[in-house]
Amino acid sequence: MQLRDEIDQDKVLITAWSSSASADMAGALAGCGFDTVTVDMQHGAHDEASAFASAKAIFAAGKPAMLRIPVGRNDLASRALDMGFEAVIAPMINSVADADAFAKAMKYPPLGERSWGPTKALQMHRSHSPESYFAAANRETLALAMIETREAFAALDGILGNDGIDGIFVGPSDLSISWFNGAGVDPRNAELQDVLAEIGRRTREAGKFASIFAVDPSDVPGFARMGYRMAALNTDPGIFHAGAAVMLGKACA
Ligand code: 3PY
Ligand code: MG
């Protein structure tokens, strides 16, 4: 599948973040030059219908679709793969047990307990027969565990040690809340950057894929030096605001 191919090339990928419950908007983001689009069911407005329609729209625009599930909704993780999403991001994976439960839902036996039924995925990925999809799915679809608390940081080696976890996705906002014991939301805090660097380095050393949410696009080159190979750039309202500011600035210059 497309996302695994691109990850294997070790490029730094940029994902758009779709939070408006609109497949049209998700498809439009896919046409804007991003490498992938992530549909957000944790904090975004998507429900299952808009998320699954978005997967089709993103795929139709030639890009791989990723889904962030709400906390603990591992049932939606396997369903997302059946609907053709190529990666699932699971928030608040704070322990080895959380990672195990997520990986079980994401991977077919012997790695996990994913149930067979990739009807829509097969419709999208026509190069696959049912047999070849089954053989490829555990490697080609990605389980990304969110590291966004002190507990998750403490459990990092155990989480990375699960063969069904392909990589991590860092949530720097929640991590800052947890790291500084609720003092505030401060994802760009200087002290936190060392923690982000350590997570990136240890993930690479474990041979796994490191990705992260960038609250500011200018942070991405630094994240790449820390070992991260995917960054999410803001949400669709944020992208609108930034684009509108540029256009209005030119029009009113
Ligand atoms: C965080 O920064 O906590 C996130 O979950 C980013 O989406
Ligand atoms: Mg978070």
From TrEMBL:
InterPro entries: Aldolase/citrate-lyase_domain (IPR005000), HpcH-HpaI_aldolase (IPR050251), Pyrv/PenolPyrv_kinase-like_dom (IPR015813), Pyrv_kinase-like_dom_sf (IPR040442)
GO molecular function: lyase activity
Family in the record: Belongs to the HpcH/HpaI aldolase family.
PANTHER family per UniProt: 2-KETO-3-DEOXY-L-RHAMNONATE ALDOLASE, PHOSPHOENOLPYRUVATE CARBOXYLASE FAMILY PROTEIN
Record organism: Hoeflea ulvae
SUPFAM superfamilies: Phosphoenolpyruvate/pyruvate domain
Protein name from the UniProt record: Aldolase/citrate lyase family protein
Alphabetized UniProt keyword annotations: Lyase, Metal-binding
Domain HpcH/HpaI aldolase/citrate lyase residue range list: 16-237
Pfam families (alphabetical): HpcH_HpaI (PF03328)
